[in-house]
Write a structure and sequence with these properties.
Layout (H helix, E strand, L loop, with lengths): L1 E3 L4 E4 L9 H15 L6 H4 L5 H8 L7 H13 L9 H10 L3 E5 L4 H10 L9 E3 L12 H10 L6 E5 L2 H9 L3 E5 L5 H4 L5 E3 L6 E3 L1
Parallel strand pairs: 1-8, 2-3, 2-5, 3-4, 5-6, 6-7
Length: 211
């Protein structure tokens, strides 16, 4: 697929976009949902794109005395996670670098998790210009604040930015920011995300940007 436009920046979500980790997180939150809220259907999908603080307050607010246990299990889970690039990501980002596009990671993950990724995959950090995490913005996806902040840091108009997302909340955030949205089917079906995406792709293999 070739996407044409006068783009200056590419903004990537992390889980399910850069790294193929969404299935791992889905298993974790499904386990927590069964533990505390078996009556809530598909809770593990409803939380995607939100910060840990928002997940705990919105979906586990009634068990606030258990938050420390949930966080402890999550920290232990993340220490054992594997981080593998989504197919084609490295080559695609290399092509963006060659075209001198600005590259950002915009994620609801926190700085502690990013530090773990840098330790496991030291070659990752030099691939991007900036990383914005949950510690860098007040409102998480689907609020567009995080993507608009990345564009502002780069000094690039929103309509000249590409957003790569896999979750419904992330796709909505990209749309609300007025950016060109590319949806990946790593977490949801093509049919379910097509209405929120300008383009839908399975991964980055064969994807080209033409300026």
């Amino acid at each position: 697929m070739v996407i044409r436009g006068n783009f200056k920046a590419a903004l990537f979500d992390l889980d399910g976009v850069v790294f193929d980790t969404e299935k791992q997180y889905t298993r974790f939150w499904a386990s927590e949902a069964r533990r505390y809220h078996p009556e809530v259907k598909d809770l593990e999908y409803l939380i995607k794109g939100q910060t840990l603080y928002e997940i705990l307050s919105r979906f586990f607010g009634d068990v606030s005395d258990k938050h420390h246990e949930i966080i402890s299990r999550l920290n232990d889970f993340e220490r054992k996670m594997t981080f593998e690039f989504v197919n084609g990501f490295e080559d695609f980002v290399g092509s963006l670098r060659a075209m001198e596009l600005k590259i950002a990671i915009v994620t609801s993950s926190n700085n502690e998790k990013m530090a773990q990724i840098y330790r496991q995959i030291p070659e990752f950090k030099p691939k991007v210009d900036i990383v914005l995490t949950a510690d860098d913005f007040e409102e998480s996806k689907p609020n567009p604040q995080c993507y608009l902040k990345a564009a502002s840091i780069f000094g690039v108009e929103p309509n000249r930015c590409l957003v790569f997302e896999d979750s419904f909340n992330g796709l909505k955030a990209g749309r609300a920011a007025g950016m060109t949205v590319i949806g990946l089917t790593t977490s949801n079906s093509a049919d379910s995300i097509s209405s929120l995406s300008d383009y839908v792709i399975p991964d980055f293999s064969g994807l080209q940007i033409s300026l």
